[in-house]
Amino acid sequence: MLFKKIAIIGVGLIGGSIGLAVKKRKLADRVIGIGRSELSLQKALKKKAVDEISLDKSKVKNADLIILAAPVHKIPPLIKELLPYFKKGTIITDVGSTKQEIIEGLDKFLSPGVSFIGGHPLAGSEKNSVEFANADLFEKSICFLVPFKSTQKTLKKLKKFWEKLGACPIVISAEEHDFLVAGISHLPHIVAVALVNSLAGVNWRGKNITEFAGQGWKDTTRISGGLPEIWMDIFSSNADKLKIFVKKFDKQWKDIRDSLLKKDFKKLKIILEKAQRKSSDF
Amino acid sequence: MLFKKIAIIGVGLIGGSIGLAVKKRKLADRVIGIGRSELSLQKALKKKAVDEISLDKSKVKNADLIILAAPVHKIPPLIKELLPYFKKGTIITDVGSTKQEIIEGLDKFLSPGVSFIGGHPLAGSEKNSVEFANADLFEKSICFLVPFKSTQKTLKKLKKFWEKLGACPIVISAEEHDFLVAGISHLPHIVAVALVNSLAGVNWRGKNITEFAGQGWKDTTRISGGLPEIWMDIFSSNADKLKIFVKKFDKQWKDIRDSLLKKDFKKLKIILEKAQRKSSDF
Q1: In the predicted model, what is the mean pLDDT of residues A220-233?
Q2: pLDDT attached to residue B127
Q3: CA distance B48 to chain A (A)
Q4: Any idea what DSSP says for residue B59?
Q5: Model-level pTM greater than 0.90?
Q6: How far is CA A240 from CA A103, A244, B18, B177, B263, in A?
Q7: Which residues in chain B have Cβ-Cβ distances shorter than 8 Å to A170?
Q8: What is the CA radius of gyration of chain B?
């Protein structure tokens, strides 16, 4: 067993999938799920994502790994509240989508004895509830790890944990992390949102035209179904980095738009070829 | 048997998948694949997508269904070239992505005796070659049918053909078709292209940052890998309809961009909520 007791705060898609993965791979003696919604907790228990559930946060006591699956801006106050229950050697981590805001928040009060390492598994979907959790969600996905208050030993242990869940952990600084995800995750999200909203209200035979769309449309816009409150939290915590990529997209969009509007097909061809070369690298 | 002899001109992903589907469902006695590349034809034969192959277009002779899987602007000249080989009752169809240009082209020379019905199965992917063809590609997908020179009998027969391939045929006018696909297919394509090009050249640890991306990025940009020559053909044949949707996206993009740049999170929330509601309808 890698850990005796793991506490997961927030058992939605990600928290629930961690629980299922831990139990499938026998990485802990006991997994406790903690949350604010009795209903969600009951669902997690029924799905066997956790061994026990509680609405009481003090139940993190004696856990040697605490995983916070909560919105970014709630992580620092949550950790502050939990401080009295940490034991020596407890590793605290999270799965939030941005890291600088969290670390700046923690820097104000976290004592040197506590091991906090930020985590961000690049897995999940627009389906946020525990019903969609699965034990293999993290297989072959990247998990960014952002050491803050950690030793070589605790970082090594958390890396091993994610490796056992099937993920590929990458150690990175908070600033680099937030820059990276602004490009590969936050930018595509806002573009997909703008795309979906472009066709709202455009109907044919009494139905929105997207009802006649094929797989291309569905794939391109899938992520726009994410919960607005989660994405507001992400955008507000990463506005400056996202701005860099907003400007990059703005330029590329104007280029392709103008080549179409001006029927400059020579330029359009160069743009399409660039994207095809790039996309064949994926 | 629905048909005695089917001729497919162009055996790539779509042509090859039609061949496989026809043979799996026993819809024709014989399927002949015709093309310009000996290599592609050999691949199609090896994959058993067709029963025989030829570089000679006159081999469409005696076919009772001829399917043209060629770029849009090549369809009218191809039909003109094939005219001497059509027999009475032959149905000619295509799988091109736009329809008005084809029908305007055909209108100049097609005699009343020939049955042309435009076709457009909303299936396929960015992988264009026959290697990726599969017999179930059209299962549960929409296939638009655009009658031009047809009788009730020939239209009924072609509808039945696509139904047997697993598709859901929808009869539509050329103008409505081109409007619809400008929104649900051509717009997402150019948006995905602009998105991919936005991150070209943005590297981390010597790699393009998209190499660290999760499924969201991959899905959102998958279609940008389509062949530039095919998409040039589509865009040039549908520039006016696409312009309508380019303007719609332009407005939505500016809205979300400005709410982010101005940190107007109240407005941003309304935009995200609209997209989430819309996208939950898909």
Answers
A1: 92
A2: 76
A3: 26
A4: G
A5: yes
A6: 16, 7, 50, 42, 10
A7: 212
A8: 21
Domain A3-172, what architecture?
3-Layer(aba) Sandwich (3.40)
CB pairs under 8 A between A and B: 282
Region(s) of chain B under CATH 3.40.50.720? 3-172
Q: Do B213 and A184 touch (CB under 8 A)?
A: yes
Q: Which of A193, A257, A269 comes nearest B271 by C-beta?
A: A193
Q: Assign A280 a pLDDT band (cuts: 50, 70, 90).
A: low
Give ranges for CATH 1.10.3660.10 in chain A: 177-279
Positions of chain B with pLDDT under 50: none
CA of A253: which chain B residue's CA is closest? B194
Q: What are phi and psi of A28, to 5 degrees?
A: -150, 150
Q: Is B63 exposed, middle or buried (0-12, 13-18, 19+ CB in 10 A)?
A: buried
Q: How far is B42 from chain A (nearest CA, A)?
A: 25
Question: In this model, does residue A44 exceed pLDDT 90?
Answer: yes
| CB-based contact, B112 to chain A, within 8 Å | no
From residue B157, alpha-carbon distances to B93, B119, B120 in Å are 12, 13, 16
Q: Does domain B177-279 have CATH number 1.10.3660.10?
A: yes
Q: Judge: B271–A243 Cβ closer than 8 Å, yes or no.
A: no
- Which residue in the set A183, A220, A269 is minimally distant from B220, CB to CB? A220
Q: What is the DSSP string of chain A?
A: --EEEEEEE--SHHHHHHHHHHHHTT-EEEEEEE-S-HHHHHHHHHTTS-SEEES-GGGGTT-SEEEE-S-GGGHHHHHHHHGGGPPTT-EEEE--S--HHHHHHHHTT--TTSEEEEEEES---S--SGGG--TTTTTT-EEEEEEEE--HHHHHHHHHHHHHTT-EEEE--HHHHHHHHIIIIIHHHHHHHHHHHHHTT-EETTEEGGGG--HHHHHHHGGGGS-HHHHHHHHHHSHHHHHHHHHHHHHHHHHHHHHHHTT-HHHHHHHHHHHHHHHTT-
Interface list for A 142-181 with B (CB within 8 A): 142, 170, 176, 179-180
For residue A67, give both structure tokens: 């995983």
Structure tokens at A130: 């525990």
Residues B65 and B9 sit within 8 Å (Cβ to Cβ): no
Interface test with B, best of A72, A125, A197, A277 (most B CBs within 10 A): A197
Whole-angstrom Cα distance, residue A48 to residue A240? Answer: 40
CB contact B272 to A (< 8 Å): yes
Do the Cβ atoms of A13 and A97 come closer than 8 Å?
no
DSSP B93-134: EE--S--HHHHHHHHTT--TTSEEEEEEES---S--SGGG--
